[in-house]
Amino acid sequence: MSVEVYYDDDADLGLIQAKKVAVIGYGSQGHAHALSLRDSGVDVVIGLPEGSKSRPKAEEQGLRVVTPAEAAAEADVIMVLAPDTAQRGIYAESIAPHLAPGKAIFFGHGFNIRYGLIKPPAEVDVAMVAPKGPGHLVRRQYSDGKGVPCLVAVEQDASGNALALALAYAKGIGGTRAGAIKTTFTEETETDLFGEQAVLCGGASALVQTGFEVLTEAGYAPEIAYFECLHELKLIVDLMYEGGIAKMRYSISDTAEYGDLSRGSRIIDSRVKDEMRKILGEIQSGEFAREWVAEDEAGRPNFTKWQAEGAAHPIEETGKKLRGMMSWVDRPITETA
Ligand SMILES: NC(=O)C1=CN([C@@H]2O[C@H](COP(=O)(O)OP(=O)(O)OC[C@H]3O[C@@H](n4cnc5c(N)ncnc54)[C@H](OP(=O)(O)O)[C@@H]3O)[C@@H](O)[C@H]2O)C=CC1
Ligand SMILES: CC[C@](O)(C(C)=O)C(=O)O
Ligand SMILES: [Mg+2]
Ligand SMILES: [Mg+2]
What are the b/e assignments for 269-292, b being 16+ CB within 10 Å? Predict the structure, then answer.
């Protein structure tokens, strides 16, 4: 099935420059969208609760901050970039009362629409601009004149112009420099959750930690295990990013390539593929979403425990020491890029 990919020339920035945009939340995605939209000539207001620890960060960047309800009331386009689990409550309390014909509600990920947690009224546009990358890099790439690809989707087209508005928004954050693919809320949500669980975050973290454990438990130096299993992964993935797996294989030794070709499928074997299919099934059926919402409502007991276990993994201590010796690597996460 072919997809439609939109680039800068396909999007009219003037459409979003003519609107007032409220960005609700000023975290990873929120700061990136708000700062890049502003730099693209868009009128932006930030919605954050009184006492939010993000307020000083946004204000230091010269952005005007009001409450989520005030931002929703004054804006034409309301982009919801608070955590997925908080969005339902923010919507009910602060956004829904201020929706009116001619307004649009935008999302950076389809979770709450796909799983029916938010149901906007028929008279507003409902659209998505979902960058395919972490917010801090969305901002860094925009500032460097580059862009992170985006997925755009329209759930409700009350104005008849929702796709053009979403593309204009994507252009304002640099997305159409790299390409904005038109999709649906369902496809974005399910592929995004699958990617982060099975490959990008869950799969990659477990692969790196397990490789580090096997080497150190066999008596090898943690520093060598760190360079081998984590640091060099970035350099290997950089080549994949630039030219696919083929370019990575072109650059590595024949010995490495033979090991890759003959051993890789013993690591990621049919059992792993079956488990990936199971994970996809849990996403498609809504089982994962129900579990995550319940975990959040219970105060995140497992999330907190697993987060602490991850932070205490020996690879973190080893990495901290080694990265401290490489000034070009130890780059702080910043909301001011
Ligand atoms: N992280 C990423 O790179 C990506 C995220 N997305 C999607 O973007 C959305 C935002 O995620 P992400 O950027 O990670 O979120 P973060 O957790 O980084 O940011 C949370 C922000 O929301 C604020 N916030 C928390 N509660 C409320 C509230 N009740 N009202 C208003 N603001 C609130 C926080 O303020 P405080 O500082 O006070 O806590 C903070 O500014 C999600 O839908 C996510 O799936 C999509 C692509 C990638
Ligand atoms: C890979 C994780 C992500 O989907 C992202 C940065 O794209 C997220 O939800 O943070
Ligand atoms: Mg993602
Ligand atoms: Mg995601």
Answer: eeeeeeebeebbebbeeeebbeeb
Q: What is the pLDDT of residue 331?
A: 73
User: Measured in angstroms, how far is the CA atom of residue 53 from the centroid of ligand 1?
Assistant: 12
CA proximity to 21, closest of 123, 120, 105, 111: 105
Annotated binding site for substrate: 253
- Res. 328 pLDDT band, cuts 50 70 90: confident
Cβ of residue 29 lying under 6 Å from some atom of ligand 1 = yes
DSSP notation for 46-81:
EE--TT-TTHHHHHHTT-EEE-HHHHHHH-SEEEE-
User: Is the beta carbon of 26 within 6 A of some atom in ligand 1?
Assistant: yes
What's the rounded mean pLDDT across residues 180-189?
Answer: 98
**pLDDT band at residue 334 under the 50/70/90 scheme:** low
Closest atom of ligand 1 to CA, residue 51: 38
Phi, psi of 35 (to 5 degrees): -70, -40
ipTM score of complex: 0.99
Active site residue 109: yes
The DSSP output letter for 115 is T
pTM of the model: 0.97
Answer whether 200 contacts ligand 2 (Cβ < 6 A): yes
Catalytic residue among 31, 33, 98, 109: 109
Q: Is the pLDDT confidence value at 330 over 90?
A: no
